[in-house]
Amino acid sequence: MANCSICGRQAIYVAKSGGLALCKKHFLEYFDRKVRKTIRKNKLFNKNDHIVVAVSGGKDSLSLLHYLVNLSKRARMGWRITALTIDEGVSGYRNYTVKRVKELSSTLGVELKIASFKDYFGYTLDEVVKIGKERGLPYLPCTYCGVFRRYLLNKVAREIDGMVLATAHHLDDVVQTYLMNIFSNNWSSIHKLTPSLTSVHKLFVRRAKPFYELLEKETTLYAILNGLYPSERVECPYAPLSFRWQVRKVLNYLEELRPGLKYSTMRSLMEATSLKNTALGEAMTCRVCGEPSSREICKACQLKAELGLLELRR
Predict the structure, then answer these.
(1) Which residues are 102's β-sheet partners?
(2) Residue 274 confidence (pLDDT) above 60
(3) At residue 275, does pLDDT exceed 60?
(4) What confidence tens digit (pLDDT) does each residue in 157-211 have?
(5) DSSP secondary structure string, the chain?
(6) How high is the mean pLDDT of the chain?
(7) CB atoms within 10 A of CB 277
(8) pTM
(9) Which of 40, 157, 244, 310 has minimal Cβ neighbours within 10 Å of its Cβ?
(10) Which CATH number fits domain 44-281: 3.30.310.180, 3.40.50.2000, 3.40.50.620, 3.90.640.10?
């Protein structure tokens, strides 16, 4: 086992690409420096902001909620932090993760808002997937989930007067999405892959990704060290069906062969976006539901219409 590059004690973290080894104390300091640098460099938050943290109940989002609450106290930022969980309605999975969010929110003393697909759309994700199959639609479960989750996160964050919506996307997530967009020839979406995302649309809640420059293994270790890693690991049953699942496996395999590959891919993305405080393109409003959209009818309403849950009228 390697020794800490700073103090010589036994290391718990080793970065193969840079040869850096860190003990528990110095890893947590390293983690804190990286996140604070991302927040400061990209002006993610201001004092006294009402930050809505998207918390799924997984290790990354639990870590983000834990970190921001403690940073606000240490730095006296005066943030009002609200945890927002979307209950998609996945049998045998979401009930476990919602339980973890409730426990951590209670421990940290933060308000928790839970919004369900059933309440807002009339159906759970399991029911939507079944309807989609019966209608012969080509979409995978993650397509419905992703579109409807993003729709609800923005809508509910705005309804509870959130000033910024913080998500736990880390470097691995961002690089995976970058590659998925390249493979799909979807270049128009790449400009959104920045630490902060704004829009001139008055109904769009600004996005922030404080973990943008952290590797997944770093957020995982933070979760373990702070007792946030679930003792019972429950994966979403739909996840292995997704394109992201396949890209993640390939990317992790290539990183083992060529340490530092994820960082070099991220640098490619940074050049593509110039890492500015990117704003969404033309601001449009869905003519059906009135939410922000990049088209005349938003993707959520389009899917609902294809599922037969909504009648579109000219």
Answers:
(1) none
(2) yes
(3) no
(4) 999 999 999 999 999 999 999 999 999 998 888 989 999 999 889 999 999 999 9
(5) -PBPTTT-SBPSEEETTTTEEE-HHHHHHHHHHHHHHHHHHTT---TT-EEEEE--SSHHHHHHHHHHHHHHHHHT---EEEEEEEE---TTTHHHHHHHHHHHHHHHT-EEEEEEHHHHHSS-HHHHHHHHHHTT----HHHHHHHHHHHHHHHHHHHTT-SEEE----HHHHHHHHHHHHHTT-GGGGGG-SSEEB-SSTTPPEEE-TTTTS-HHHHHHHHHHTT-S-SS----TTGGGSHHHHHHHHHHHHHHHSTTHHHHHHHHHHHHHTT---B-SS-EE-TTT--EESSSS-HHHHHHHHTTS-----
(6) 94
(7) 13
(8) 0.93
(9) 40
(10) 3.40.50.620
Spell 110-138 as b/e; 16+ CB within 10 A means b. bebbbbbbeeebebbbbbbbebbeeeebe
Question: What is the pLDDT confidence band of residue 278, given thresholds at 50, 70 and 90?
Answer: low
Instruction: Say how many C-beta atoms besides its own lie within 10 A of residue 268's C-beta.
Output: 14
- If phi > 0 it is left, if psi is from -120 to 50 it is alpha, else beta; for residue 116 that is beta
Rounded to an integer, what distance in angstroms lies between the CA atom of residue 79 and that of residue 110?
11
How many other CB atoms are found less than 10 A from the CB of residue 309?
15
Residue ranges per structural domain of the chain: 1-41, 44-281
